[in-house]
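Need tokens for this chain, all 1173 residues.
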Amino acid sequence: MYISELKMHGFKSFANKEIMKLGQGITTVVGPNGCGKTNIVDAIRWVLGEQKYSVLRSGKMEDVIFNGAEGIKPLGVCEVAMTVHNNAGKLPIEYEDIEISRRIFRSGESEYYLNKTLCRRKDILDLFIDTGMGADAYSVIELKMIEQILSETADDRRKMFEEAAGIHKYRSQKKSTLRKFEITHTDLERIKDIIVEVEQKVHHLELQLKRFKRHATLNENLERKDKELAFLQVHRYKSQIAPIQSRIDEYRHLRESKSTASSTYEKDLLKLRDKYKAEAAELHELQVVMDNLMDNRESLRNSILLSAEKSKGALLTIERLEREKSLNFDKIEQLKQLKLDFDKEIIDLEPTIEEKLNTYKYHKENFKEIEKKYHQTTSNLDNLQNERWEIQRKIANDRSLFERTKASVEEFSSYLAKQKRLFEQYKEKNVGLQRTQKKLDNDKKVIASKLLKSEKNIDSFSIKIQSLKDKKNSISENQHKISAMINSLNGQFEFYNELIESNEGFPEGTRFILENPKLFKGVLGTIADMFKIDKNFRDALESGLGDLSHCLIAADRKSAMKALDVASNNNAGDLMILPLKEASELKSNLKKLPSSKKIIGRASDLVKTSKELKPLADYLLGNLLVVDDIASSIDSNIFIGWDLVDSLGTFSGQNLIFKNRKNSEHGSMMGRKEKLDIISSELQSAVNKQLELDKNFKSVFETIDLVNGKLEKESIEYDKLKEISSDIDMDIVRNRMIMEQNQDNFDSSKKNKKEAKIELENSKKALLALKPGIEKADKKLESFQNKVNEANDIMILARNAKEDSQNMLQELKIKLIELESRRDQLKFKKTSGDENAEELKERQINIKKEVDDLRVKHNELQTNAKDSEKSLQLVSANIQKQRSIIDLKQSVYKETYQNIEELQVRISSEQRNNEQILEDLKNAEIEANETEQRIQLIKERILDRYNSNVPENIVVDLSEEQIEIDILKMQRSIENIGPVNMAVQDEYNEEVERLDILSSQRDDLLEAEDNLRETIRKIDKVARKRFQETFDLIKTNFEDLFKMFFEGGNATLRLSGDPDPLEADISIDAQPPGKRNTSLRLLSSGEKALTAISLLFSIYQVKPSPYCILDEVDAPLDDVNIHKFTRVLGKFCDETQFIIVTHNKLTMEIADFMYGVTQEKKGISKLVSVKFD
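Here are the structure tokens for all 1173 residues:
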């Protein structure tokens, strides 16, 4: 099984669609830093379901989408598809080629596909679980992960081992099972609490149901009385309505006769009002005409004033324009004189400018010749200096070679003397190392025997601790059961105690006496309390006694009478009292029991009571037989004259009365105190048992701590011995390495001494050959230096001449520019003066025209003012005439208004009389309506309360007052009952049904809890075995591979911390040859890389991964270790596909396929592939 194809589109720097065709064997991915090689690794992680964006080197998941580059916009979606060739059938799917793909959008939405079918991330994770191909499996190793794998708290390392052992799915199942167990346990506790609550609720609802029935009976009687009262009230109100109706008819007749007289006055009033409106309209029209004349007069006055002001303004404007015309004439004359002056000055400047221009041109040609000569001298100097620098460089190289050769002679001389000393030292050191090796071998044998003994002790303590833990868990379960039992018994105790204290089930009068024992000192108790009987016959006895079970027992007749008087005075209610003294004197002639197997016994014989109460028991129960089956017994003639009852409470009396025992909502009346004592005894026993379990739990817990202490102490001793053993092994290996190194150094020293002699002779010969060449070059350099000095002097003279000519040329150019600037200024001033003169001439013409227009306008205004004055005189005369007409019309208008007011006074008087009649009519109607409303309210009250109408005909014997008294009594009784739950029957049925369901659920949860415990135990057992087997294999492989990579040294794996292998930490001990490392942190980067690679391939030996991606893990390795690395890759590539991101040429040499990653455009990666035959 291997990855056959990888498609990327829009993933990180792969903006365009790129396809990698992969095969079995080794594939390398190469390219410069930052080109996008690691993005391929991230793409494989991502498509396999990686969710941690930090692992993908992103700030958020949307960052994996191509974010744009120079000239290219960002994409909105990215997609990666990977095809896996399932030729080995390792994946649980029938297809040979499986394509998984993942797509993400900018909005954050993500999609997964399996063979182009939409699926969940969980489906992909489940497909690859325990195959070594998951996103977090050991198949992808980056250089930065070397530190994580070798860290002291490496969770990633444990994941690799679990993946290799194939227990990752077991751990997932265990976590899921534990979550279900916690949920089940929580649900069980909740169900138990709910059951207790529901049981209490059921008992309370039974009490409420009885009160509800009493309440219903009172309500029926109250409805009947209320309807009778309503019938009487309606009849009384109807008799009151008749006289009121006759008064209403009389008032209506008076109102109609008065309305005829009022209508005559109202007609006259309407005529006067019409006349009044016509006069008002005529007066308004005259007033409008008057207002128009006034407005016209005011308009003429304003027109006269405006014409006078405009005429005055025209005269003032004429005077201003005449003054401006005079000033403009003077300005024109001044501008003519300035123009003549400017022309003269321009003519004088022209010859001077021409002379300066010719001089500037001559000096400019001269400057060009001087500058050309300067450039020639500079070029000649540069050539000479370049030749001198080349000679100097050659001399410097020869001198450097001479000095290096001289230093080599001295170095080889010193090195030769050093090698002679080392040769003697290595020879002596070999003898000492052989003695040390012998001593270390003896120490190793002693430590090995101690380690074996310590391991046996640790195993013994571990077995003992496990046994104690099992015992502790058993005690804990018993504690939980006892705690639940105590809670249940407490609830029962409170329930029965409340029944006894509240005397529920007894009549009101009996309860009153029992609740006030100080008022009734002669009362001893009830028959139910005084008679004791087995619980199997309680229902039979209660059914046989009937209401006598509620009967009170007094000391004697006197006490009984006294108790009755006190109870009567306090309105206590119903009660029965039996005097004990008189009852004890009664003698009952008990009949002989019939001979029948159906008889259980005489009821009085089954009762347990005191000697004083025995006659009473015989008197009350002597004729009552308890039988097995009442149905078959009543037909037998032998039971004639006997009362019969069975254990269920079904009763058949000799008086032909049959009755059935129904369980009371308050429980059985008989044996309440006895039941309370039994519950109290059981509760005390359970509490004692709980205390005993707590004591045992504490004892076991202390024993576990004690044994744990011993185990920890023994483990510490074992670790110390192990450490000493490891140190000895390290010392042995180190000593052997030192011996080998010493021998290698001895041989190397001998060889180096010989080579040093040869190199020393060669260096001395080279030194003699270099010296003549250096002296010859020094003379040549001195000759070139003189030529350079001469050329430099010539160049300086040329440069000075060039600078003098350039300064003169600059001064001439400045003077020429100044003269040309003065000429241009004069021409501009001349042109501006001409333009101003023309503008002033045009203004003179315009001023003359404006003056003529103003004089014409002044004359027109004078004429208009005279015409307006004449019109004003005519309008004033019309106004005086109109005012006299208006005054005449106003006097007629006022006279009409006075007539209207007189007629309105007469109408008001008539209206007041009508209003009084209407008021009386209204009051009579209101009184009738109120009576009708009272009747209607009574009917609505009956309809609302009882959903029925007031009876039309009914015979009522009592008066309203007597019925109201009866109603008040019934209402008071209902109030005394208190609030009643009207839905109590339905609630009671629902809660009983709910209690049954909850009890069933509790049983199911208890069974599920046991099943989950067994499942967890099985999962742990299988996972622990598989993990331990895999760990041992990986450990053996790691020790061998480490020695192969390092050509010696010592390394191992061990489990530490928790004794459970599934929870223990995995520690790595690694000691390369020649080192005594106590921590992995002391290893170099290369040593860490080799150690991690050794561990990785140790896992592959146990469970080969279908593919392995190595991202620059060979970066810290030198060439020697690279050869070892590639040799191991060659061994594993038959079973595992390797994809290696690398910069190393030696790693590239072993590749079957090679992909190059480039960036033709900045920020966009592109793939280039090579396949090797």
